[in-house]
């Protein structure tokens, strides 16, 4: 099943990703702001039976070790399996306009419509000239419904609407209208 598929992907691609040639692709930590340091010697107890006078010292030199940084980007979680292009079902062409704003992909058409209605009432004027639009993607139990606003004449208009939606705690993604 899924575990076997993941194991096959790991077995196939991890060796390629960790080859000597790809190791040159890693970014250098030089010039980065150091967040923490353990350069001073630290007393470490060897075990409980050791006398208090018998101690070992641990030393760490940060200049030769890579530093770890917390991720700052949003993560997109993929679906269980990618959908083939022939499985995509369009719900017709969206309204005219150069840009679209997608706020969600929901499991039901009604959930997408409800979310669009809520977003429109909360974001107000930023969506005044946009039209709500849903699009079914997938097949059977893998179908999701994209909740979008369409009809933005420019990227700047779509970006302003997206900023207004984010202020109201909605997710947002800009897309060029290919309809």
At a glance:
The chain is an alpha+beta fold and 179 residues long.
Can you offer a commentary on this structure?
The chain is an alpha+beta fold. The chain has a domain at 85-176: 2-Layer Sandwich (Alpha-Beta Plaits), CATH 3.30.70.1070. It is built from 3 helices and 6 strands. The protein has helices at residues 2-17, 109-123, 155-167; strands at 42-44, 56-58, 99-106, 131-137, 144-152, 173-176. The strands form 2 sheets. Strands 4-5-3-6 form a 4-stranded antiparallel sheet, covered by helices on one side. A two-stranded antiparallel sheet has the order 1-2. Strand 4 and strand 5 form a beta hairpin. The longest helix has 16 residues, at 2-17. The two termini are 37 Å apart.
């Amino acid at each position: 099943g899924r575990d076997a598929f993941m194991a096959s992907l790991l077995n196939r691609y991890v060796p390629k990703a960790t080859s000597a040639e790809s190791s040159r692709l890693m970014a250098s930590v030089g010039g980065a702001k150091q967040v923490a340091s353990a350069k001073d010697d630290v007393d470490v107890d060897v075990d409980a039976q050791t006398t208090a006078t018998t101690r070992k010292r641990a030393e760490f030199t940060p200049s030769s070790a890579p530093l770890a940084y917390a991720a700052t980007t949003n993560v997109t979680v993929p679906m269980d399996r990618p959908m083939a292009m022939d499985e995509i079902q369009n719900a017709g062409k969206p309204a005219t306009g150069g840009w679209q704003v997608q706020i969600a992909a929901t499991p039901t058409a009604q959930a997408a419509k409800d979310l669009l209605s809520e977003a429109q009432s909360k974001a107000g004027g930023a969506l005044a000239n946009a039209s709500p639009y849903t699009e079914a993607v997938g097949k059977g139990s893998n179908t999701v419904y994209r909740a979008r606003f369409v009809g933005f004449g420019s990227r700047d208009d779509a970006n302003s609407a997206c900023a207004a939606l984010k202020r109201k705690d909605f997710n947002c993604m800009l897309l060029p209208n290919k309809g």
